[in-house]
Structure formats: structure tokens, C-alpha cells
Write a structure and sequence with these properties.
The protein is 58% helix and 16% strand. It contains seven helices and seven strands; from the N terminus they run H-H-H-E-H-H-E-E-H-E-E-H-E-E.
Length: 297
């Protein structure tokens, strides 16, 4: 009986030691995982070689981490290749387009019939449209590949919006559109003036591209400064506001002459200045909102 009791005590002691050891190993796994998450290290999970199951678990975790790291590196390389592709396409398209426009100008200087001149004007119109698309490619590739050098300053956003809208009156009239700029007290933001101007210009171009009615522009003061562009849109069923800021997304590829980069550029510029973008579609009216850090008096 005494021997049985002693054996039982020894068994309990060994079992307690083993449970304690497993607990310590689990604590070690948690500590190493926490370190990887918080310090962004690439160290594999290491354990003492006493538990087959725990060591198998560590092997599987490390295998997963390795696969995840390979996917991350592949994604980075693919993104780098994509940026280089966009930059190369932009450059390669510019050279022949310059030649095309040059020859069009030479042809325009010659003697042409009314029908020939009309066809030439159509060709020039499409060449100008292609030039605008290439500029979007170039601008987007530049923003992706160059580390932004922001000149953050206190800007009167109300005045800046009014100035850019005034400069776009001719283009808006050519497209038979009007802009209603709701009066608001001066709203100041902390932003790069050149980047803020490009955001407004791209929002105007987007309105011209998709609007089926006049454009309404508003400025709102919340925790941030909010710039809102809204207008009725063509082909409402084709719009997906969840994807509107995705690069190369266009609401209707069969009818669109857009690269789908205009709003992607707006999003990129806003985020580089610490802002954000959003879109909503209600009763056939699309609203694009750009939020920028507000500068208090």
C-alpha cells in the first residue's frame, strides 16, 4: 500500500511537471507570436524539443509564416512591376502621339475640302482625348513612384475651390454644364496647395465625364474640412460606389473614354495629405466627398 501511494505521488509529481512544462511552452509560443506582431520581426517560432505535438505545431506555424512572407514579397514585386509598367506605357505612348498631332497640324495648313477638314477635326478631337488619357497615366505613375514632398500650409479652401471652378467655366460650358457653388464662410485646411488644386480639377473632370445634369459643390466644416461634389449621373445601374476609387475602374466600359484613374488620383492625393475620400449614390445623384485636415483659426 505504501509503495502504491509513493508511486501515485511520484506519478502526480511527474504529471504536474509535464503540465507545467506544456504551459511554459504555450506561454513561449504566445510571447514569440506577440513579438512578431508588435516588432515586425521575421524570427521563426522556437521550442524545446520535449513535446512532439508542440514541436509539430511550431513547424506548421513557421511553415505558414514562410508562405505568408513569400506571398508578401511576391505582392511587393508585382506592385513594383505594375508601377514600372504604367510609367513605361505612359512614356511609350507620348512619342507616337506627338508625331500624330504634329502631322495633323501640317495637314491642317494645306488646302482641304470641307469634308476633309471635318474629318481632320474629328481626328484631332480623338488625339486630344488620347493625350488627356495618357496624362492621367503619367500623373498616376508619377504619384506612385515618387516619394511625395509635401508643402503643407494653411490654405483658404473656399477661395481655392472658387478659383479652380472659375478657370474651368469654358470647359463646363462646352459640355453644357453649370456649377452651383453653395456659399459658405471661409474654410481653412492644412494641405499642399498644388495637390489640393489637382483634387478639385479631377473632381470637375469626373463630373463632366459622368454628369447628366448640373454639378453642385459644397464645403462643410466637421472635425475635418469636407469638399463635396454631387451631380445626377448617367447609367445609374452601372455604378458601384464601393469600387469607384479603384484604379482603372469605369462605370461603363462600353461607353466610357476614361482610364478610371481620375478618382484614384483624388484618393491617392487626399491620403498623402492625411485625408480621406468616400462616395454615395442616392436617387440617381452621385456625391464624392473629400476630407482634408482642418486648420482652426
Amino acid at each position: 500500500m505504501i509503495l502504491f501511494a509513493a508511486a501515485l505521488i511520484i506519478g502526480v509529481f511527474i504529471l504536474s511537471f509535464y503540465i507545467g512544462f506544456l504551459h511554459r511552452q504555450l506561454h513561449s509560443i504566445n510571447r514569440q507570436l506577440h513579438k512578431r506582431l508588435t516588432e515586425h520581426t521575421r524570427q521563426p517560432i522556437r521550442l524545446e524539443l520535449l513535446s512532439k505535438e508542440l514541436n509539430t505545431l511550431a513547424v506548421h506555424i513557421n511553415t505558414y509564416f514562410k508562405a505568408e512572407e513569400n506571398l508578401r514579397l511576391k505582392s511587393i514585386q508585382e506592385e513594383r512591376n505594375f508601377k514600372e509598367l504604367i510609367a513605361n506605357i505612359s512614356h511609350d505612348l507620348r512619342t507616337p502621339l506627338t508625331a500624330i498631332k504634329g502631322y495633323q497640324q501640317l495637314v491642317a495648313l494645306g488646302e482641304l475640302t470641307f469634308d476633309q477638314r471635318k474629318k481632320l477635326q474629328t481626328a484631332q478631337k480623338h488625339a486630344d482625348q488620347l493625350e488627356r488619357l495618357i496624362e492621367h497615366f503619367f500623373e498616376y505613375s508619377y504619384l506612385l513612384n515618387v516619394e511625395p514632398k509635401l508643402a503643407i500650409e494653411r490654405i483658404n479652401l473656399t477661395n481655392l475651390v472658387a478659383e479652380v471652378l472659375a478657370a474651368s467655366v469654358t470647359t463646363l460650358e462646352e459640355n453644357q454644364l453649370a456649377v452651383r457653388f453653395e456659399e459658405a464662410p471661409p474654410l481653412f485646411v492644412l494641405a499642399d496647395k498644388e495637390m489640393a488644386m489637382r483634387i478639385i480639377q479631377n473632381l470637375i473632370r469626373n463630373g463632366i465625364q459622368h454628369s447628366s445634369g448640373d454639378i453642385t459643390v459644397r464645403l462643410l466644416a466637421t472635425d475635418n474640412a469636407v469638399l463635396s461634389f454631387s451631380n445626377a449621373v448617367k447609367h445609374v445601374a452601372a455604378f458601384d460606389t464601393e469600387r469607384l476609387f479603384d484604379r482603372f475602374y469605369t462605370s461603363d466600359r462600353a461607353r466610357s473614354s476614361s482610364t478610371g484613374l481620375g478618382l484614384s488620383i483624388v484618393k491617392l492625393l487626399a491620403e498623402q495629405m492625411g485625408g480621406s475620400v468616400s462616395a454615395s449614390l442616392h436617387d440617381g445623384v452621385l456625391e464624392i466627398r473629400v476630407e482634408l485636415p482642418r486648420s482652426n483659426p
